[in-house]
């Protein structure tokens, strides 16, 4: 799918925007100063498919830890800064590949100029993050509630500060916990700015609510060609985020080498213990980087038909299942051997 063309911004070895692929992003939930733990989490996220990682920077100890973290990871790192421009300078000096801040929130213009100068010298981009729930007081009073118009007005203020300083390596985001407001704001942004857009629904809640809200908002935008990087925000461990975003990008035909799992909802016709098998294979497929379609079906009514269109499939029977590959029945497998055989066939595919 052709993306909405934007400026191209380089973050480490990644090229964001223009017509490049959508970059998968996440954020650590560990204090950055705990460098060893942060590195362990980032390396795990890398294996799952994360391409860009953000860490919080609350104090100088966090900022200084970035240097050690950068030596041990393989993907670009974004430093999240609020209010204190000195933290931004320290993160830049420590090797951050990108800074997330709102230039209007770090004090006097001279402070902004110092950050922009440092970013220019090291070719580090800045992400301006607009949140519908924390707009400037005058904008909130003007519109009375979070609106797309207010979010765009806020972004224009911050963008203007950077453009006045001849800085254009900028990425924008327009997040809200309301998925419909996200859609409206990002559509408006795509018409207003030529900067790359980072997609996200903020404060989206649990795995279930986040998956639903994010699929509604971000799936809609992605299918319209809007968005250049993406994060699915889930309460808890960031490892929960990556499978959701990969599934979303796969279903929008924007990513390859992601397995496709088909599984029926089960009904009274199902005569084998199917749910545990589906759950185990789903977890297993999160570690697989292949364009393979796996179908796990409960009975002989719909099972064989669906299975014929999958690369590898099980059509369940009474405490057993038929193993089907590329539409051809290979063997009959007892229920307790199904998961192991499926994993074998996935590995061989």
UniProtKB/TrEMBL annotation:
Record-annotated IspG C-terminal domain positions:
260-348
Q: How is the cofactor bound?
A: Binds 1 [4Fe-4S] cluster.
**Protein encoded by which gene:** ispG
Query: What region holds the IspG TIM-barrel domain?
Result: 6-244
A single BP term in Gene Ontology: isopentenyl diphosphate biosynthetic process, methylerythritol 4-phosphate pathway
Looking up InterPro entries in the UniProt record yields: Dihydropteroate_synth-like_sf, IspG_bac, IspG_bac-typ, IspG_C, IspG_TIM, NO2/SO3_Rdtase_4Fe4S_sf
E.C. numbers:
1.17.7.3
In its UniProt entry, what is this protein called? 4-hydroxy-3-methylbut-2-en-1-yl diphosphate synthase (flavodoxin)
Tell me which family the UniProt entry assigns to this protein. Answer: Belongs to the IspG family.
Keyword list, A-Z: 4Fe-4S, Iron, Iron-sulfur, Isoprene biosynthesis, Metal-binding, Oxidoreductase
Entry GO MF terms: 4 iron, 4 sulfur cluster binding; 4-hydroxy-3-methylbut-2-en-1-yl diphosphate synthase activity (ferredoxin); 4-hydroxy-3-methylbut-2-enyl-diphosphate synthase activity (flavodoxin); iron ion binding
As its record notes, the protein acts as a catalyst of: (2E)-4-hydroxy-3-methylbut-2-enyl diphosphate + oxidized [flavodoxin] + H2O + 2 H(+) = 2-C-methyl-D-erythritol 2,4-cyclic diphosphate + reduced [flavodoxin]
Check the record and name the Pfam families matching this protein. Answer: GcpE, GcpE_C
Task: Describe the function of this protein.
Answer: Converts 2C-methyl-D-erythritol 2,4-cyclodiphosphate (ME-2,4cPP) into 1-hydroxy-2-methyl-2-(E)-butenyl 4-diphosphate.
Pathway entry: Isoprenoid biosynthesis; isopentenyl diphosphate biosynthesis via DXP pathway; isopentenyl diphosphate from 1-deoxy-D-xylulose 5-phosphate: step 5/6
Name any cofactors this protein relies on.
[4Fe-4S] cluster
